[in-house]
Amino acid sequence: MNSILLSLIDTHAHLCSPEFDHDLGEVLARARAAGVGAVIAVGETLADAERNLDLAEKLPMVKPAAGLYPTFLDPDQAAAMVEFIRRHREKLSAIGEVGLDYWAVKAEADRELQREIFKNFIRLSGELGLPLNVHSRSAGRHVVAMLLEEGATRVQLHAFDGKSSAALPAVEAGYFFSIPPSVVRSRQKQKLVKHLPLSCLLVETDSPVLGPEPGVRNEPANLPLAIRAIAEIKSLPEQSVAEAVSENTARLYGSLLSIS
Ligand SMILES: [Zn+2]
To answer: How far, in Å, from the CA of 14 to the mean position of ligand 1?
Structure first.
């Protein structure tokens, strides 16, 4: 199993979370033992982005990303993040996480600002050639529509909470959907996996959340659980799923993720 999964990449995890402060080395050692070769370390703030770059200097498995979480509705913070991403473009593997959250943000004026900030990150992605690592909650159709409207080409929709019908235009556009270990307990994620083609699926953990058990710290070593669940739902061998997912990850991230 380990040799099969050796090149698996956790495409979305919050390694900068304080929940990993005391044992990140051990967490990554367990991930490696489980066949995870690299982890895309997303962030929610400028402080997270800086921490991700620091972690990547010390820990070669960590592939840093930078983004502003969609509930931060502050144009100054957004501008500072855009500037940070430009300055560190060569070190970054992705812009994320960014996106829309209509569950947390309800007022139309606030949503308008959220869309404006997201639009700037989409444009930056095109300009710099960096993939977008996208959060959407209760806003699946809106996120997909905006990405298409802006002509985004390199897109990962993380933990997509919409219906597969909302996902299909994104599949047609060549966007990818990352499946977390919580798929083992989420009917919605199981349906998504069932209806989307294997050629658009990636895996992630969203550590420290979205693990197999609610309320228990999730970590990248749980990544194979997502592979196993996809294999079961699609009635395919785990090896085929692992290979397809690895190829998909390479198609989206390519040389941005040199595995050491
Ligand atoms: Zn996340």
So the answer is: 6
Other beta carbons within 10 angstroms of residue 149's beta carbon come to 10
Across the chain, which has 260 residues, the per-10-residue mean pLDDT values are: 64 97 97 96 98 97 97 97 98 97 97 98 97 97 98 97 94 98 96 98 97 94 98 97 96 77
If you measure from the C-alpha of residue 199 to the centroid of ligand 1, how many angstroms do you get, rounded to a whole number? 22
State in Å: Cα 206 to ligand 1 middle.
5
**Spatial distance between the Cα atoms of 28 and 41, rounded to a whole number of angstroms:** 12
Which 3-state string (H, E, C) describes 118-186?
A: HHHHHHHHHHHCCCEEEEEECCHHHHHHHHHHCCCCCEEEECCCCCHHHHHHHHHCCCEEEECHHHHCC
Q: How far is the CA of 128 from the centre of ligand 1 (A)?
A: 22
| pTM metric for this prediction | 0.95
What is d(CA 111, CA 115) in angstroms, rounded to the nearest whole number?
Answer: 6
For residue 18, how far is its CA from the centre of ligand 1 (angstroms)? Answer: 14
Give the number of residues written for the chain.
Answer: 260
- From the CA of 255, how far away is ligand 1's center (Å)? 23
